[in-house]
Amino acid sequence: MAVNLLDFDLEGLAAWCEGLGEKRFRAVQLYRWIHQRGESDFEKMSDLAKSLRAKLAGAAEVRGLPLISEHRSADGTIKWLFDVGGGNAVESVYIPEEDRGTLCVSSQAGCAVGCRFCSTGHQGFSRNLTSGEIVAQLWFAEHRLRGADGERVKSTNDAPMRVVDNVVMMGMGEPLQNYAALVPALKTMLDDHAYGLSRRRVTVSTSGMVAMIDRLREDCPVALAVSLHAPDDALRDQLVPLNRKDGIAALLDACLRYLDKAPRDFVTFEYCMLDGVNDSPEQARELVRLVKGRVPCKLNLIPFNPFPASGLKRSPRERVMAFAKVLQDAGIVTTVRKTRGDDIDAACGQLAGEVQDRTRVNQRLLRAPVRVVPLQEMKA
Ligand code: SAH
Ligand code: SF4
């Protein structure tokens, strides 16, 4: 199969172009056509030398992800489902806000971490996405919306304005379990010749892989969100199984080390509010004792989005507010996440619904009796 140019960060593309006997500035031109202009047809890249276009035509392509469906929520949230082959699909969610647009990007088809409250986790792990498949979600969203949403296009010099200003790696999958593909994808998000996003506006959300947090700090520090969900190891072991490996203390130490090089001076802790599980005022106080004075942080309380197989319930609003108040009174900046896109199943942790359906369909197909086609019928 032809090389997918979406797989490369600029360094990778420059090295690949060098292999074709092309100078670095040609790679920059090509990279800008692909990511800034959204172009996938080499023939339309008018300022590329004809000879280069001919070389590209045979060896490479800009391969986006086939779109399965698009759902638009009443609140403006858009969810796209993409086919990644083998009966798997991944989702991306675009969340428009007054002054910015956020894209929630998937890193894996399924997830191996298996958190109790997460629909993707219940689905199990299918495979890692490639860098190209991660970047393709941004490439698609940015250029689809730029084209469709006239207001986003500057009239003065026709230079298109950016539609996506924030990327959060909070879709399906654990990004740090797909590290090799993640880093080049992040680099393309940040590169001024591509999307030029600020490091502060690209967030990796992780269930807390200590060794990989350390590597990310060295290789590509961006904003960090850590899915904490519990104030003690006994509970976190149950909710986020990989906690059994390192434990909360080691995780908080890794967060502190990360902050040395991070573009923001705090870590965001995500905390999914589960009725009667992790939402008591005493647990809020424990959480304060855990993080206060130890890790500069903000707390983001996420209302749980229920799905039948979880057997869990969303905390009532008053309980969430009481929990938030304990944290705020202790001086910890705390926000309660608004749920967006509820009506199209695009809220956090719901991003497996349709995929599961598809998996079920596929399993049904696999189980269907194989019909042996007689030879003469085949010939006819
Ligand atoms: N694997 C990464 C990123 C993807 S999950 C991680 O765990 O951080 C993104 C966020 O959605 C995480 O904070 C996760 O805990 C949260 N989440 C998962 N399932 C949820 C659900 N059913 N309701 C609300 N939030 C959920
Ligand atoms: Fe995986 Fe994150 Fe879901 Fe946990 S919450 S199962 S790490 S996607």
Please identify the top-level CATH class of the largest domain.
Alpha Beta
Helix content, binned percent: 25-40%
CATH fold descriptor of the largest domain: TIM Barrel
The CATH architecture of the largest domain is Alpha-Beta Barrel
Average pLDDT reading = 89
Low-confidence stretches: 352-380
Q: Tell me, briefly, the overall form.
A: elongated
Q: How would you spell out the order of helices and strands?
A: EHHHEEEEEEHEHEHEHEHHEHEHEHH
Bound molecules: S-adenosyl-L-homocysteine, iron/sulfur cluster
The oligomerization state is single chain
* Number of separate strands: 14
Number of helices: 13
As a percent range, the share of strand residues is 15-25%
Largest sheet: 10 strands, mixed
Secondary structural class: alpha/beta
Any idea what the CATH superfamily of the largest domain is called?
A: Aldolase class I
Instruction: Count the domains.
Output: 2
What this model shows, in words?
The structure is a single chain. By secondary structure, this protein is an alpha/beta fold. The chain is built from 13 helices and 14 strands. The protein has helices at residues 10-19, 24-35, 50-59, 119-123, 131-148, 179-190, 210-219, 233-239, 243-259, 281-291, 317-329, 353-367, 375-379, and strands at 3-4, 60-61, 67-72, 78-85, 88-96, 101-104, 108-110, 125-128, 166-169, 202-206, 223-227, 267-273, 297-303, 334-336. The protein has a 10-stranded mixed sheet, with helices on both faces. The chain has a two-stranded parallel sheet with strand order 1-2. Helix 7 packs parallel to helix 9, helix 8 crosses helix 9 (243-259) and helix 10 (281-291) runs parallel beside helix 11. The chain is elongated.
